[in-house]
Design a protein that fits this description.
Layout lengths: L2 E3 L4 E2 L3 H4 L7 H9 L1 H10 L3 E2 H7 L4 E3 L1 H16 L3 H15 L3 H15 L2 H12 L7 H4 L1 H7 L5
Parallel strand pairs: 1-4
Antiparallel strand pairs: 2-3
């Protein structure tokens, strides 16, 4: 389950903008969550998605007001905590079997990611992002989708 602050959450799949596909099963997971068209939009644009759009697309279960988020999650956990553990485990296992990527798919994604992450283009784009403040608190990190869109076009 995925819940996010309506006012503060921003989701992004930045990998394509940097030069790689998402790895470790992310493409399969997003496609199952969002559907093909919306997964293509999220993955191929590397754009930022606010919580309301992410909720509408199915990326998160709910966008909850920030002031209510902790209580909402605690109440949900407490409710489930009152149910029989065996039933919870069995239900989650059955849902996972239908909805999660296979280990082979995850390995294939990881191999492709590893291949492309070493490319000259990916290395150059990553270096440029670090020059702009990537992985430090600031505009680049907080508006990563915009920062990716502002990188120099690839030939």
């Amino acid at each position: 389950m995925r819940f996010a602050s309506r006012e503060n959450a921003v989701l992004c799949q930045p990998e394509v903008g940097i030069g790689t596909p998402p790895g470790a099963g992310a493409i399969q997971h997003l496609t199952r969550l969002l559907g093909r068209g919306r997964a293509l939009e999220a993955v191929l644009t590397s754009a930022d998605f606010d919580a309301e759009l992410a909720e509408r697309y199915g990326w998160i279960n709910r966008a909850v007001p920030d002031a209510e988020l902790d209580e909402f999650v605690a109440d949900l956990a407490a409710r489930m905590g009152n149910f029989p553990r065996d039933a919870l485990v069995a239900a989650k296992s059955a849902i996972n079997a239908i909805s999660l990527a296979t280990p082979a798919d995850v390995r294939a994604d990881a191999a492709l990611f590893q291949q492309l992450v070493r490319s000259e283009t990916t290395q150059q784009r990553t270096a440029e992002l670090f020059k702009q403040g990537f992985q430090t608190r600031g505009r680049t990190e907080l508006d990563l989708g915009d920062a990716l869109g502002d990188l120099k076009p690839v030939d």
